[in-house]
């Protein structure tokens, strides 16, 4: 059975790497079921076929079942589609608010279960944003949407689309897993006869009751902890909603390795289930202090198991059914079922059954780090404790002796999990927290045994008792956060290295297994040698004289990483998406971390527009930078951030140049007088850089427009502007890319960094056609994803979506 389940999970994971779905998945699924049944019958009849054949057949059947089961579910999930012709059209939809709304300064986001649509065929579940302002500052009053309410809304929708970058978050896969097949926003009321209006205060339904309960608990917590710094942490522990925790706090939690605790984790669920089981079992044994003699009717152990399983189920519903929560719930349900049926089962069987149920219900779970970390942690503990002999304490052992034994067991468990997950953590995050053992030793008992029970009690008990408990829980979190902040601020807090290749990861796994082998295994310390390739790897770089350039898919904005043999330069930092999210925090920094790049030698911010400078502050806060060059005005947040970091700074000025390992950089624009000319727009001061590696060159033109293009042509010598690759000026707007300029540059390849269905309609159709008419190859980041170029004897171009195709893209 375990072999079959492991094969099933492997098959489901294999399906998630495919570029397209196999046809007739349902028919093939039932064919494999029939073939597997026939093979099992044959194996029973022929005893000479040993256990090896049985394992092989079970594994092969499991892989086939997992692959086609996942394909069948994927086909069903992707069947509801919004027609391309209906994208961007006004559609009137009626339905219910189907998720916990997330409120932010600009508006609110929520999932919407569609019951009726007028004007288009709309998928049954869509994700909507309702903004307070609308494009041209048109007032748009945001409705007070609550879970379970029925609304009629005028919306504009598009098919699921996300940024596609190496080592980046796959938003399209996440939407598919959630069942969301279209995204969009609520329009201002276009006509008086079709207002955005609430039709019913609550629509009965199981999901609506759950989400409404979560919303009520969250509202109660936020009322009691109004304007408190860590109210979002308390909300996350009670209802699993982590969206109110700012990025600055997540940075501390990640650096100290305690982020797994800032949610409804498996540890918290087990604790709550244990408390309810203990209380129910105790009351049942005492027949609720009556003479009913309840244990004679039903054993107290079974009642305790039922109470614990029910409490775990309710708590997991509050968590939003995340993978760690699912895994714990299924394990507890298997244990409860075994107790009820009188069947003793091993923890290995329980873990495998939980794995099978998670993948059966959600085959996309294998795409996320939480899945691998959750099951990896339990598997590591099983390996490190299975078959180990322990001497039980005698009954007469004192309280302190038992306490020391419990502390020693907890310390050993923390050591095992920390060490065992090092290879997986490096593979998934390219870093490992060195202070994690200390931080977790402090945070686990505080969060699990003190803060979580207080938070739950404060959420459920009546006022004013609830307010006192929640304030106490918050005060404890605040004190814990101060300690974690001090730990995370240490220079040695985190070890970073590039994401390892598979051979290095497997070698590190072998070393970890050796290190955690049973006592008496020879030279267990030698297992750490398996980590050396993992932890000492250096970032890759081009050979001297050659150049690597990566144009990120950051949406409507610019961000380009330029790498020579020994230096790295970032040109622009991407757009600002919201007050706490931008192109640097969501795209650039994760990419640099996965590559093991801890320092940028230089950063150029072409100009002050938010789509170019929106990620500057978060970049400077998270990455070491050698110097900053820009055309920014004094008082810009990026200038203030560089002052705090004491970075060398200079204005971009035509004539500046430098050389790194044989690669020449030349600043072509703006002129020195531009920085004091208040009549110029930020676009007119865009830093324009030409980079030459051998016989090839790339021109980064920022947002210069026709006037600046003409100035460059007037003051440039013949051939000075020529480049093989051109980053299209101003994203291909109608005010740039004049025929004369394109003729002077004469690129073979042009890259348009644009957002999917951006409101500026970049690149403009006539400009995009102009490039094509001149024989220039055109690549768009909203279509191809990130574009990577290697400049050597030739220019090798890699398009991320083409190099890593997935069936949901």
Q: Describe the sheet with the most strands.
A: 8 strands, mixed
* Assembly form of the protein: single chain
* Chain-averaged pLDDT: 90
Structural class: alpha+beta
Q: Can you describe this structure?
A:
With 809 residues, this protein is of the alpha+beta class. Helices cover 45% and strands 17% of the residues. The chain has 28 helices and 28 strands. The strands form six sheets. Strands 19-18-17-14-13-12-27-28 form an eight-stranded mixed β-sheet. A seven-stranded mixed β-sheet has the order 20-21-22-23-24-25-26. The longest helix has 28 residues, at 51-78. The two termini are 34 Å apart. The mean pLDDT is 90.
Summarize the structure in short.
With 809 residues, this protein is α+β, with helices and mostly antiparallel strands. The strands form six sheets. Strands 19-18-17-14-13-12-27-28 form an eight-stranded mixed sheet.
